[in-house]
Amino acid sequence: MQATTESLHAGISRGARRYALVVLAVVYMFNFVDRQILSILLPSIRDEFQVGDTVLGLLAGTAFALFYVILGVPIARLADRWNRRNLIALAVAVWSGMTALSGLAANIWQLALARVGVGVGEAGCSPPAHSIIADLYPPEQRSSAMGFYTLGIAAGVMLAYLAGGYVAQNIGWRQAFFIVGLPGLLLALIVRFTIQEPRRGASEERHDSGSQPDLIIVARFLMARKSFLYMAVAAGLSSFVGYSIVNFMPSYIDRSFGVGIAVIGFWLGIIYGIAGGAGFYLGGYFADRIGRDGHRKAMLFIAASTAASALFYGGVFLSTSLFVCMTLFVVPTVIANFYLAPVLSQAQSLVSLRMRAVASSLMLLIINVIGLAMGSPVTGFISDMLEPALATESMRYSLLIVSTVLLPLAAWCYLQAGKFIEKDLQHADERD
């Protein structure tokens, strides 16, 4: 009886709801394959174009993030007004095409422009997807559903490392872009013609007035929610560390341990795929269960896991044995990812129905300005500054500094968010 009620609330059958979630997770997987394929290719690109770590950081982070961040909010405005499924399908087609074009770059500037194009396309993915998921699943199941969706990150990074490492070593780094980019064009058609668009507010039986608040109203509404601000900054700091590590971990292993790129891609792909996937899903799962006794407890759980991950990263980047390094790396790969699904879920729960995609985009704006745009270039800059003194070990200590300084600060911000979350949730439906 409960399943039937949930299906009716979602406005589509239970099977169609699950199918939509699976397809959206696959979309997110392709999103991260095309986003992260560059990281395993950076050593090869560095050798061909003869550039430093700061340039590589700008290429991996800022070039992609430039329009990804800028376009996120206006695209989210469209998602709160128009058909979200169609926006996602168009976005998949754009970023997949631009990924394939990356393989044709003749110099670092052309590659940077192609990465800008990937960012333009990927800006249209998460805000409408988050909004659809919020309409498919009620609040008590939403973090788990969002956790399943974010499994696409781990699966995408895994495939990027596995495919990118093998192809780069055995065929060429340019061909890797073709191989991962072109299949996305087929996925765009699958999204457009097989996913149903759910009714807004269906999962909570909230009434949609049909009127969309102005952007400034949404921004003011969220800026008045201290829990939102603390969560966004905390997630941004977590993302800063996460993107720095995922982009430069291959470079660190290559330089400090002298391991071939295909081997690096294989082991990092397995770790990110299994341990990372477990972290993304379990973060949402545990947050839903712990949150039944109060959302503040869920924030405390995220803070504790974030602080613990800093300790393990310290061990990873101080290891002199590759075996010890990889073994320790499994633990923070799981627990450092606990934060994402609960944070994205709470952003949906804090606002009215026609604010959801914009709320998601504003959350992602803050996260990505701090993490995606700044993480890799700052980490690369620190490495370049340390290189005269530390030579090939400069990336090791750059990553050590970034992870052990910023993650404890993120944990403190999650604790502060917990102090305000219950009160802020009481005002979520004020503008329905």
Kindly give the count of domains.
Answer: 1
The top level CATH class name: Mainly Alpha
Which superfamily, in CATH terms, is the homologous superfamily?
MFS general substrate transporter like domains
CATH architectural grouping: Up-down Bundle
**Which structural class is indicated by helix and strand composition?**
mainly alpha
Q: Hey, roughly how much beta strand do the residues contain?
A: under 5%
CATH fold type = Growth Hormone, Chain: A
Series of H and E elements: HHHHHHHHHHHHHHHHHH
Shape: globular
* Tally of helical segments: 18
Largest sheet: none
Question: What labels describe this entry?
Answer:
mainly alpha; 0% strand; single chain; 432 residues; globular; disordered N terminus; 82% helix; Growth Hormone, Chain: A
Task: Summarize the structure in words.
With 432 residues, the chain is mainly alpha-helical. The protein has one domain (2-194, 211-425): Up-down Bundle (Growth Hormone, Chain: A). It is 82% helix and 0% strand. The protein is globular, with a radius of gyration of 21 Å.
